[in-house]
Amino acid sequence: MIENIQDRRQLADVVAERIERLIVDGVLKVGQALPSERRLCEKLGISRSALREGLRVLRGRGIIETAQGRGSHVARLSGEQDASPLMHLFNSQPRTLYDLLEVRALLEGESARLAALRGTDADFVLLRRRYEEMLAAHSEEGGDPREHARLDHAFHLAVSEASHNPVLVHTLQSLTDLMLSTVFASVNNLYHRPMQKRQIDRQHSRLFHAITERLPDQAQRAARDHIHSIRDNLKEIEQEEQRLVRATMRLEGWA
């Protein structure tokens, strides 16, 4: 009897580790509902009882959550980011935008290089899909900037997933909220300016083609140039606004 209990525990750990691997590899994403028990059993080649034991282990580790009537889904692994004092400070300080752009240039430059080296045909099909969705949204007049930002971010996330470095992917995903703030800043401030919009579209095109043509150095350079260009354009807009404020104050007799 004791041996049977030990065998069940070992099997549950094996099942849990296989599902954890799917999460680490990005096959199952944060917030995503797990497939049905029948489908999981078929895919993993295990019995339903073994699956349930494995899911129980994962719930105990806080890796999956189960809600009545909604089934199980992958938990938010990095904790309550929105409630984090650090995240609040980052979001409340405008200067952090430029710090985050520096981090994006480093991480996304490397993920683009690795994507060009390691990306599979399936990765490139998904990357092309995200790229074309982003282009379609950008070509619309008067579209929702937040939707543009979401699709822009989805394209960059597809690049990181093609790198096949789970730590890199999850590091970028853990910064999703902050990343979206930088993407939204660029979309909101740059896409209504025809010259900057054309520049960003050209940069995305360079990045996409360098990766899918398997040119790692060009892909890394394209990713970094894209982020550095956004940084420089946002700084220029900021300086323009400051000049306008100073001129208006002088006009109104403040100086």
UniProtKB/TrEMBL annotation:
Q: Where is the HTH gntR-type domain?
A: 9-77
Q: Which SMART domains match?
A: FCD, HTH_GNTR
- Which GO MF terms are attached to this record? DNA binding; DNA-binding transcription factor activity
Query: Coiled-coil region(s) at which residues?
Result: 220-250
Query: Keyword annotations for this protein?
Result: Coiled coil, DNA-binding, Transcription, Transcription regulation
| Superkingdom as given in the UniProt entry | Bacteria
Q: Which organism is it from?
A: Stutzerimonas xanthomarina DSM 18231
Protein name in the entry: Transcriptional regulator, GntR family
Alphabetical list of InterPro entries matching this protein: GntR_C, TF_FadR/GntR_C, Tscrpt_reg_HTH_GntR, WH-like_DNA-bd_sf, WH_DNA-bd_sf
Gene3D superfamilies noted in UniProt? GntR ligand-binding domain-like (1.20.120.530), Winged helix-like DNA-binding domain superfamily/Winged helix DNA-binding domain (1.10.10.10)
